[in-house]
Design goal:
Rossmann fold, TIR domain-containing protein, ThsB__TIR-like_domain
Length: 165
């Protein structure tokens, strides 16, 4: 069964990373499965914040995973990005934090404060490791959640080695 992903990011600065993820998915040369929740519903009336958030909530409810693309200004975005993270936490979505600076662990400077102590896996931007996280983190996150664990997680170097990274 495929995993439906909702991606949130700084739409002004980091949209090209999101577009690259979409391109990986459609390019058969990449083993990258990205069922994009943004393709599930479209907001017809985007005139108000309330209307936009209603559409986004529908997409989040249809998702299994929240992918947060963390760039230079992500931590400062409250109107939508922080709200999307809050709703995802409320819904119990598995969270994958993707560091655009390619750090393999949480970047405590750039990571949005709301995510610093949340159950989330932190990975660098790259198709192999993001695909691995999409396929594997939801079941791991469920086990951690049942055990009452939280906080930032990251993959050991051995996972990167197996992936050829």
């Amino acid at each position: 069964m495929a995993t439906t992903c909702y991606a949130c990011f700084d739409g002004d600065s980091d949209i090209h990373y999101y577009r690259l993820m979409q391109a990986w998915h459609v390019n058969e040369k990449f083993d990258f499965t990205f069922i994009n929740a943004h393709d599930l519903t479209q907001s017809r009336d985007s005139s108000t914040e309330e209307t936009i958030k209603r559409s986004l909530r529908t997409r989040l409810r249809a998702s299994d995973v929240l992918v947060v693309l963390v760039g230079e200004s992500t931590r400062n975005l409250y109107k939508f990005v922080r709200w999307e993270i809050e709703v995802s936490i409320e819904l119990g979505l598995s969270i994958i934090v993707v560091n655009l600076d390619k750090k393999r662990r949480m970047n405590s400077v750039l990571c949005p404060p709301i995510l610093r102590n949340e159950l989330a896996i932190h990975v660098p931007f790259g198709h192999k490791i993001i695909d691995y996280a999409i396929k594997n983190w939801p079941s791991s996150a469920s086990r951690h959640r049942v055990a009452g664990e939280s906080g930032p997680y990251y993959y050991q170097d051995s996972v990167y080695s197996v992936l050829g990274l």
